[in-house]
């Protein structure tokens, strides 16, 4: 399976060629020269705040599980995991094992609590992502970009995006373990395989932790809502800001369309959404009446931004690796 993931690199050159073949690089770099040093500093500050918000979400979950850790230390682990997820094939997943390893060996966090905290964090993140895509779709559809005035006929699509993660979370709040029950009902031939048994045990343990964490429903719902608002307000603010700095005039709905397209591209299983992001932005900006150079100026800014944070994550991983504790060190349990 690990080797098969490398096959996801194969379409990347073709996607990039398709996206870049008609690009006028002189106009592209002219667009990028609009960014003044002060504006770059402001955008960097906004992105640091964004990373701190998503790290704070993980810290709050750990505190709720009875294993508080330093926010600054968690920031390094989070960036290290992000670097692996961004630079390897997969839909922005893959760095969690490194994130967990560093938290266990440097932060003295037990494996069980660390796994539960990361799974809860990812559950909140996925719920927020799909809820955003669903809400954005409802806001964007009246623009008529689908070429039909009967935009309300497409409402079931975004409604389904919201309903799926919301239903899962509702089941967890009710004390159920949906994934564990589904896996337990799969054909018995699978249950004899060691890999399946490990997966079943991991999901069962994780969902048990999630059920326990969500018993305080008011607290958990408040956390989900608060971090959903913080993450997407920060994301939309950054998008509006960089579009303004690049001289791209878009309405709020159009900016939502761009942001939703970017999020969909990053959910695809290509390393760093390479090729997918470029084609998505080209398609969205063409719908909005802009030339390819305008779209690619935004993409190039995002690539530089993401690589800067990935480099920071690799540096944090290297530093944490040198400071790691011996494997047989004691990890206190709460």
Write the layout of secondary structure elements.
Blueprint: H1 2-5, H2 12-20, H3 25-32, H4 37-64, H5 71-87, H6 96-107, H7 111-140, H8 156-173, H9 178-184, H10 188-191, H11 194-213, H12 217-245, H13 252-267, H14 276-287, H15 292-322
Helix pairs in contact: 2-14, 3-15, 4-5, 4-7, 4-12, 5-6, 5-15, 6-7, 7-8, 7-11, 7-12, 7-13, 9-11, 12-13, 13-14, 14-15
Average pLDDT reading: 81
How big is the Rg?
21 Å
β-strand amount: under 5%
Shape: globular
Q: Structural class of the helix and strand makeup?
A: mainly alpha
- Biggest β-sheet strands, sense, barrel: none
Whole-number total of structural domains: 1
Helical content band:
over 70%
> What separation lies between the terminal Cα atoms?
36 Å
**What sequence of helices (H) and strands (E) makes up the elements?**
HHHHHHHHHHHHHHH
Strand runs, count: 0
Poorly predicted sequence stretches spanning 5 or more consecutive residues: 148-154, 327-334
Number of alpha- plus pi-helical segments: 15
